[in-house]
Amino acid sequence: MAQPPLQLVIGNYNTSSWSLRAWLAMRLARLAFTEIRVPLRREDTPASIRRYSPSGKLPVLLVDGTPVWDSLSIAELVAELDPAVWPADAARRAEARSISAEMHSGFADLRRLMPMDVVSRFAPPGRMPRGLTADIARISAIWRSCRDRYAADGPFLFGAFSLADAMMAPVASRLVTHAVPLDTMLDDYVDSVMSWPDMVVWRDAADAEVEALRDRGALEIQSVARAGREVPDEPLGGAQLLAATAVEPSPPRRVEPQVVVSLDATPDATSDEAPEAVFEEVPAIPVEPSAMPEAAPAPQGRAEPPRQDASEQMETPAIAASPSPAEQQSPPADEPPPPAPPPARTAPAPSAASAEASRGRACDASSAGGDAGSRCSGRGAAAPRGNDDQAHRQRNSSTTLR
User: Cβ-count burial of 209 within 10 angstroms (0-12 exposed, 13-18 middle, 19+ buried)?
Assistant: First the structure.
């Protein structure tokens, strides 16, 4: 496939490790591209990056105006233009991809506690935090495993320099900057990476950047035209690429002349020599509506239920317990209480005449029982007199004494 126009937008040479990875991938395939350096850690940095990158992060590769962001994505696009940037053997290629992906997603303590600074040199770190020690141990294990198996094929992880080495190059620079002690095998690998011709070019650019910052106090947007080959319709094979990118024993400090154009970072200033796309707004890649369906709006008056993740949806729902009679009768808190039940029907009160008649019938029944001393009152039959009445009083008195 023919090579489209390429523009690689990067951050500072001295400190932007992800920019270095994408830049080495482009140089590994010997692609012709325009390199645009945006100074970091300035007030206008976010606005300057947004001109090129829809994610607001660097690096980003503009392929005929279409942005491709993230260093690993850029590396895979470079591999589509030239597959020989990965090892030729399928097993080695799979391992190289795994190492690159692990580097891309891991080693947070190493990045945080040992930031990349190409120019500076610090004293050995001494005792290191546990997370940093674990990161360095894992990286050392990866390097040692590859070098044990592939040292006969060349000085890099899989023999020849590949995208896996490009992903590890900022780590090699960090270990040099922070003077991390390594064994002889790993020291040799770090030396091979740092003496790779494109790493030498990057180190020179970092030196010039630090000097410019020291002299002028600020950096400007800078554009560099990197010469390279046009990708033919049929990509180069692995042997052809190795022949084109063979490492000399003593690489020169300057591999190629650089065409440097300084551009003002302010949005309204332009330069006649600047690439026209530098000052164009780069739109984000459109997304088909079918790829990202919109959620249906919730009906008025009802709150949309919270979404559940897959693990919650796979669980067996619990069986709800039957409510108690009291819960069935009590109304919910947000509903009005039910109306009070109607009063129970009661028998009508008897009239005075009927009550007097009833008492008369009770008194007649008592007299018919043969007790001449009984009498009637408004509270019913009185207690019997005589022996029964005396016994009744004795029971009451004994109860009171107890």
Answer: buried
